[in-house]
Amino acid sequence: AGTTHLVTNAEECARLLSALRMDVPRAVLGFDLEWPPPHLCPTTPKVALVQVSGDRDVLLVRVSAMPSFPPALKDVLEDARILKAGVGICGDAKKLLADWHVAMKGAVELQGLAVRYGYGEHGTGLKQLGCEILQAPLIRHCRVARTDWAAPELTSAQRTYAAADALVGRALLV
């Protein structure tokens, strides 16, 4: 079993990303984003959490708790040689650009790949693809998805949910 790291500063982010990249045999990371639902924010909510995973370890980077976007994370996300796998990742890339001016490269949209290879009969969401391709039931509660990802503290349920998204995304590609 791997470790989920809750990252709240740029220095820790750089150190953990370096370790994660050395641990990844192929240049493939699982990727996802979370932000508060619109009904919890007076303005358009910004990305609050960036999730990246290697084989076992996951970084939950709380960008909402930082004064600026971590430079090491920006470098990884803008590096086209490092593939980032996720469901809905193209929309996530647009949101990241709009909110944090990070131009993500190397994004691999898993929904299109799944359909191309004959998967997705029961849907192309992360939960459905995880079950169909990996035979790994992903327990997803919409009540967790709709919580405040910019809250001062993340709950255990939020951390588990966020880590699973990144891990399953990577596992689906490799």
Automatic annotation (TrEMBL):
<feature type="domain" description="3'-5' exonuclease">
    <location>
        <begin position="6"/>
        <end position="169"/>
    </location>
</feature>
<dbReference type="GO" id="GO:0005737">
    <property type="term" value="C:cytoplasm"/>
</dbReference>
<protein>
    <recommendedName>
        <fullName>3'-5' exonuclease domain-containing protein</fullName>
    </recommendedName>
</protein>
<dbReference type="GO" id="GO:0003676">
    <property type="term" value="F:nucleic acid binding"/>
</dbReference>
<dbReference type="GO" id="GO:0005634">
    <property type="term" value="C:nucleus"/>
</dbReference>
<dbReference type="Pfam" id="PF01612">
    <property type="entry name" value="DNA_pol_A_exo1"/>
</dbReference>
<dbReference type="GO" id="GO:0008408">
    <property type="term" value="F:3'-5' exonuclease activity"/>
</dbReference>
<dbReference type="InterPro" id="IPR012337">
    <property type="entry name" value="RNaseH-like_sf"/>
</dbReference>
<dbReference type="InterPro" id="IPR036397">
    <property type="entry name" value="RNaseH_sf"/>
</dbReference>
<dbReference type="InterPro" id="IPR002562">
    <property type="entry name" value="3'-5'_exonuclease_dom"/>
</dbReference>
<dbReference type="InterPro" id="IPR051132">
    <property type="entry name" value="3-5_Exonuclease_domain"/>
</dbReference>
<keyword id="KW-0378">Hydrolase</keyword>
<dbReference type="GO" id="GO:0006139">
    <property type="term" value="P:nucleobase-containing compound metabolic process"/>
</dbReference>
<keyword id="KW-0540">Nuclease</keyword>
